[in-house]
C-alpha cells in the first residue's frame, strides 16, 4: 500500500494532509524519516509512526449502541448529534448504521463498516425480525386489543401504501404498552401501523434485532463491540 494512503487510512489525515505531513518530516518508516508519499509499505510488518504515534490499519468493526433520543442515524451533520459521534474509535466516521432509527426512537442500533454483514441484517430477503416496545397514547384492551392483534397478524394497509404490511406479531404488555415484532423496514413503519389501528405512539424503543437483544448493561448513549458469537448470528 502507498504510504500516503496508509496514513489516510489510519489517522485523521486526508491524502493531501498526509503528503504535507511527510514533507514536514512528521513520519518515520521503520525508524527512519521518510518524505516520499508513493513509497510502498508492508502493512503487516513495517512500522509507521506519525508524530510519535504508531499507526495500524483499522479492521472491520461491529458495534452495538444503545441509541438515546435526539440522536440521528445520518452520516451528514444536521440538527442533532449523530450516532457515530458517540463511538470513540479511530475512523468512526466509516461506521454505517445497520438500518435506522428515528431521532426520537431509542434502543438497539448496530453500526459496522462491513457492508456485506450489514446487508444480511437489513435485506428483506432475510426477513430479520425486529422487536419494538411502544408506549401508546390510547389504551388497548379487551375486544379492541384482540381486534388489533388480528389486524397486525393479517397485515395492515398503511396510509400512502399499495400493499399490506407483512404479517407481524402484536403483544400487549399493558393497556398502553405494546410489543410489536416486524420483519420489514418501511418508512416510520411502527408508528404508521399503530396509526392504522387508530392509536398514536408516544415513545418507541427497539429491544432486539433477530436473536440479538440490546445489552441490558448499556445505558442510553453507551456502546460496545459485538462478540464473535453475536456477529455470527447474521
What's this model, at a glance?
Helices cover 21% and strands 27% of the residues.
Total of DSSP H or I helical runs spanning 4+ residues: 6
Rg, please? 23 Å
The name of the CATH superfamily of the largest domain reads: Pseudouridine synthase
Task: Report the strand count.
Answer: 15
Task: Report the mean per-residue pLDDT as an integer.
Answer: 94
What is the total domain count?
2
Q: For the report, how would you describe the main beta sheet?
A: 9 strands, mixed
Q: What is the second-level CATH architecture of the largest domain?
A: 2-Layer Sandwich
Secondary structure class reads alpha+beta
- CATH fold-level topology of the largest domain: Pseudouridine synthase
What proportion of the residues is helical, as a percent range? 10-25%
How much of the sequence is in beta strands? 25-35%
Poorly predicted residue ranges: none
H/E element string?
Answer: HHEEEEEEEEEHEHEEHEEEH
CATH class of the largest domain: Alpha Beta
State the separation between the terminal residues, measured CA to CA.
Answer: 31 Å
* Principal-axis shape: elongated
Amino acid at each position: 500500500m502507498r504510504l500516503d494512503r496508509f496514513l489516510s487510512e489510519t489517522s485523521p489525515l486526508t491524502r493531501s494532509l498526509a503528503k504535507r505531513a511527510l514533507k514536514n518530516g512528521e513520519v518515520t518508516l521503520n525508524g527512519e524519516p521518510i518524505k516520499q508519499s508513493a513509497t510502498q509499505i508492508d502493512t503487516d510488518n513495517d512500522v509507521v509512526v506519525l508524530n510519535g504515534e504508531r499507526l495500524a490499519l483499522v479492521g472491520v468493526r461491529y458495534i452495538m449502541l444503545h441509541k438515546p433520543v435526539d440522536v440521528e442515524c445520518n452520516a451528514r451533520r444536521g440538527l442533532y448529534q449523530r450516532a457515530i459521534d458517540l463511538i470513540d474509535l479511530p475512523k468512526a466516521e466509516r461506521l454505517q448504521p445497520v438500518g435506522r432509527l428515528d431521532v426520537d426512537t431509542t434502543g438497539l442500533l448496530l453500526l459496522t463498516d462491513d457492508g456485506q454483514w450489514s446487508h444480511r441484517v437489513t435485506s428483506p430477503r432475510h426477513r430479520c425480525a425486529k422487536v419494538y416496545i411502544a408506549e401508546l397514547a390510547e389504551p388497548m384492551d379487551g375486544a379492541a386489543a384482540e381486534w388489533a392483534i388480528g389486524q397486525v397478524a393479517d397485515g395492515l394497509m398503511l396510509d400512502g401504501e399499495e400493499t399490506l404490511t407483512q404479517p407481524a406479531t402484536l403483544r400487549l404488555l399493558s393497556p398502553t404498552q405494546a410489543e410489536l415484532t416486524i420483519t420489514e423496514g418501511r418508512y416510520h413503519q411502527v408508528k404508521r401501523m399503530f396509526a392504522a389501528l387508530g392509536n398514536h405512539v408516544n415513545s418507541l424503543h427497539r429491544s432486539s434485532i433477530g436473536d440479538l437483544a440490546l445489552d441490558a448493561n448499556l445505558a442510553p448513549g453507551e456502546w460496545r463491540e459485538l462478540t464473535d458469537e453475536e456477529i455470527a448470528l447474521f
